[in-house]
Amino acid sequence: MKDNHVLRYFYKEEDIDHINLALELCEGSMNDLALGTNDRLKTQNVHCLLKQATRGLIHIHKKKIVHGDLKPENILIYMDNNIAYSKIADFGVSKRAKAGSSSVTGITGGSPLWSAPECLDSVRGRSRKSEDTYSMGLIIVFVHSKGKHLLGDYDSLSNTACMEVIKKGNLNWSILSDDEPWDCTAKSLLVKMLAKKLNERQSAKNVLLHPIFWTLEDQTLFLSDVSNKINMDGCLETGNSNLLTNKNIDWKLHLDFPELIKALDDYNEKNNLPPYDGKKVNSLLRAVRNIYHHHGDAHDKRLLMLCSNWVKERR
Q1: Does residue 249 sit in helix, strand or coil?
Q2: What CATH number has the domain spanning 9-97+104-210?
Q3: If 214 and its partner were Cys, which of 175, 218, 221, 264 is the partner (CB 3.0–4.6 Å)?
Q4: Which residue blocks in 151-240 are alpha helix, DSSP H?
């Protein structure tokens, strides 16, 4: 099973008492990354590593394998010239589905703290890929929040208590802050990854399409495309003024590069184009589109942070 984000197996040696596996040597795990226990991992891009881990999960699901025991300790981090790569590991309880089937039987064990609700029943039925997606949702929160679990203070809970919280779906969403743009965006995905009903749970493939995994280029291009759509269809020009206006904040006053907006305003005036209204979303999107197509500053993080903060403050 060759993939850049699945731990590589080389060979094994065995005798009567032991089986020894030769595997890739890794620097640490997602658990080390989240808790800050490995200095070499502290400077690594968390979101990039989570994206890679999700790609690894997509790969094993394509191979019709249910991992069955995903947790931070089982996603290892391989270092190559100070560049980190996520590697899904420990397939000790994993099973491959038979041809024509999307589920497996016979998975036992696993880690209750990272398990989906259906895995905690006294009699475990068929296991599905969606169980792994649920576990990955918990891992994303744990790593991004630097060691916080949606169960809350899980160290003070017994295994039985943890299992009851997961079964009832009483997850502690308060650890995702409404004041943090990433948290607000991620919650829309995580709610679907951690849905109790299997038919409502996201697949790993769909997880990777979510905006939290977009690059700055992807984000800016999306905003530019939205602006083009509004410009062509006028879809927000009438009847939806609440979507356009924020009376409490002027986005033009929050730019770190006012000289750029002045240049755009001068261009609008010279060509008899409407000026930018600092209290309208469509004006902000038009500015993003024009900067993206005509100025190198389009990929500046400040512009994207401005967009997310402006929309957040107008809620």
Answers
A1: coil
A2: 1.10.510.10
A3: 218
A4: 159-168, 181-193, 204-207, 216-233
In eight-state DSSP terms, residue 213 is: G
Give the C-alpha distances (Å, rounded to integers) separating 48 from 140, 239, 262.
11, 40, 35
Q: d(Cα 12, Cα 254) in Å, to the nearest integer?
A: 60
Report residue 85: phi and psi, to 5°.
-135, 135
Residue with tokens 């590589």: 8
Nearest to 117 by CA among 137, 97, 102, 103: 137
How much is the pLDDT for 259?
A: 73
Residue 72: the pLDDT is 96
Which residue type is seen at 62? Answer: K
Residue the block writes with tokens 């589109």: 289
Q: How far apart are alpha carbons 136 and 70 in whole angstroms? A: 7
Residue 192 · residue 200 · CB < 8 Å: yes
Unique residue bearing structure tokens 């083009």: 228
SS3 17: coil
CB-CB contact of 176 with 191 (8 Å): no
Asked if 30 and 75 touch (Cβ cutoff 8 Å), the reply is yes
* Residue ranges of the chain whose pLDDT lies below 70: 1, 106, 122-125, 233-249, 254-257, 294-315
Give me the helix-helix angle, 129-144 and 46-62, nearest 10°.
170
Coil/strand/helix, residue 311: helix
Domains of the chain, by residue range, sit at: 9-97+104-210, 216-313
Q: How many CB atoms lie within 10 A of CB 17?
A: 5
